[in-house]
Design goal:
Layout lengths: L16 E2 L2 H10 L3 E5 L7 H7 L3 H5 L4 E6 L2 H10 L5 E3 L14 E7 L8 H11 E12 L4 H8 L15 H10 L2 E9 L5 H17 L6 E8 L1 H5 L1
Parallel strand pairs: 1-7, 2-3, 2-5, 3-4, 5-6
Antiparallel strand pairs: 6-8, 7-8
Length: 233
């Protein structure tokens, strides 16, 4: 169960630790009626991830009514060939949401996508247009506060996807959501699938989390709803 974090500047960060991001998202999908999955294609890795069973969208389809949405037309067209029965939509939500999709979803998932977006506030507002009034948005992003980031920096290394625009920590993610009209309901950190060395490091990070409760995982999971002030505006 995720709890509301204390994200005040200067306060100590204490966040739950989620062992498996994908299982968490699968469970969330199972709890909702109609879901939109932003960034569903993972293009250009779509075919590879589908062949290995690692394509998140294909896994989520097993748990609920999930509409895949992506800005990449080539990726959407290829995914439509690979998953012919899956509902898919090529859409840039920053440019507007079609009327038939406005307020149509009780859950919007934005997994490992926000860090790729050059204008995150406009993007999140577009995601809000997809949500029904009391709907939930769930975002996962790499964690700028992960100790593993600092360990790599000591050795002069930065491991980052070539399409990423920004790093998010708990407070900057919460502020970005707030700027887009959302109120954060809960936040946690999570471990990514570790390398052999990463598994060793994770043992120490789990111990550190038991002591301090900090955001020790490689990623963050935030859940939010449209704030009452934004809803009444």
């Amino acid at each position: 169960m995720l709890v509301e974090p204390d994200l005040r500047t200067g306060s100590r960060l204490r966040l739950p630790l989620i062992a498996d991001r994908v299982s968490f998202l699968e469970g969330l999908v199972a709890e909702h009626q109609r879901i939109a999955h932003l960034g569903c294609t993972d293009w250009p890795y779509t075919e590879h991830r589908l062949s290995t069973g690692d394509l998140l969208h294909e896994r989520l389809l097993r748990f609920g009514d999930v509409t895949g949405i992506d800005v990449d037309r080539e990726g959407i067209e290829r995914l439509a060939e690979l998953l012919p029965d899956a509902p898919l939509l090529c859409l840039d939500v920053t440019s507007g949401v079609p009327e038939e999709h406005r307020g149509a979803y009780d859950l919007v998932l934005v997994p490992e996508t926000l860090e790729h977006v050059p204008d995150p506030v406009s993007f999140l507002r577009g995601c809000g247009d997809l949500l029904e009034g009391d709907g939930l948005i769930c975002i996962t992003v790499p964690n700028a506060c992960s100790p593993k980031v600092g360990i790599r920096a000591v050795f002069g290394r930065e491991r980052v996807h070539p399409d990423h625009f920004v790093y998010y920590g708990p407070r900057t993610l919460e502020r970005t959501l707030q700027a887009a009209g959302f109120a954060t309901q809960s936040m946690a950190s999570y471990f990514a699938v570790p390398s052999r060395f990463g598994r060793v490091v994770d043992v120490g990070l789990r111990a550190a989390h038991r002591l301090g409760g900090g955001p020790v995982g490689e990623g963050l999971i935030a859940q939010a709803r449209i704030s009452s002030a934004s809803a009444s505006a």
